[in-house]
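Hi Q.,

Before the meeting this afternoon, I wanted you to have the zinc ion prediction in hand. No need to reply - just skim if you have a minute. The sequence and ligand are here:
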Amino acid sequence: MTHTPIFIGARIYRGSSYGAHHPLSIPRVPTVIDLSRALGWLPDAQYRTSPCAKPSALTGFHTPDYIAALQRAEATQQPDPDFDLGTLSNPVFPEVYRRPATAAGGGLLAAEHVRNGGVAYNPGGGTHHGLPDRANGFCYVNEPVLTIRHLLGMGLSRIAYVDIDAHHCDGVAVAFHGSEQVRMISIHEENRWPFTGALEDDAGGAAINIPVPRGFNDTEFDLILNEVILPAVAAQNPDAIYLQCGADAVTEDPLSRLALSNRCHVMAVDALHAMAPRLIVAGGGGYNPWSVGRAWTCVWATLAGHDLPERLPEAASAILRNLHWSRKAQPTEDLLDTLLDPPRHGPISDQVRTAVAVLTKRLSIQTGKHQP
Ligand SMILES: [Zn+2]
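Predicted structure with the ligand bound:
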C-alpha cells in the first residue's frame, strides 16, 4: 500500500479563471475531481491538497525579477509588458501568482511522494511553455521543469519526460537543452504555435521531437508510441517518468486540428506505468470542458486501477451535463454519458511513417553507441 497512487488537487482551481474570453475560462481539475468522487474513485486517503509554492521554490528555474513581477501583478492587477503579463494569452487575473504557484507546489509534492517509488497525478500541472523570465502560452510558471529539477536534486539521474500535448514543450526544451540526465520526447501538431520542435531538432541530444500533421489519429499514435516513445524510454532506463498528458490533441479540442480519442491518453499511461519505479502524470492543454474532464478522469482511473464504465451513472453524467461553454459547439450525447471515446482509427500518413523511420534509425544509432 505504500505505493498507492495519489491525486493532487486544490481549491484554487475551482472558481478561478483566466477571464471570460480566455480558453482557460473553463473548469478542468474540478471536473476531474467531481467525476472521480461521483464514481467512488477518490477516497480521502488518495487525495492530497497541493501547497502553494513559495517564491524561493520557483526561482530554481525562473528569474527572481520575473517571480517578483508575477506577485506584483497579482497584487496590483496591472499588466507588466516586460514579462508578457497582461497579454491576451497571459492575462492578469486575481490568482495569477497563486494558481500557477499551486500547480508548481503540486509538482514538488508529487516529486516528494515518488521519492522512494510510486505514482502521483497532478492534473493542474503540465504548464510546459513557461520561460525563465516571462509568461508564455497560458503558462506563468513551468511546473514540469521545477518538478524534474526537484527529482534530479533528490539524486535521481535519468528522467524521461514524455509530452502528448498538441503543442511543443518549448519551455521544457529551453530548460533541458543538452541535458544528459533528462530525455524529452514530444508529439505535437506541426505548423502550430509555438512553432518549435521540428523533427531535426534534438535539443543538443536531449530530445526526440515528433511533429504530426492535421488529422493525426489513434492508429498513428499507436505506431509512434510503440515504435518510438516506448523504445526510447526503455533505452534510457529512467529512474522516473514525467508524463505531460495535455488533452488538446483530441478531435473536440478547439485549439488543435488533431483527431485522437482519449484512448491514446489511457494507452500512454498504461504503457509508461510499468517502465519506471516512479511516475508523475500531469495535465497540460485541454480547452473543451467535456473532453478534457473526461480524458483526465480516464487517466486517473487508469493510474488508480479502476475499470472505465460503459455508461456513466446518473450522478457522474450530471456533472458533465452541468458544464457550460461560451463557444457555440455543444457536446454530443456520448460526451455526456461516457468517459472513454470510441477508437478513432485511420490511415497512417506518409509524414508519420517518415518520422518513425527517421527516429527509429537515430535511436538505433544512439543505443548502438552505448553498447560496449
Ligand atoms: Zn497544448
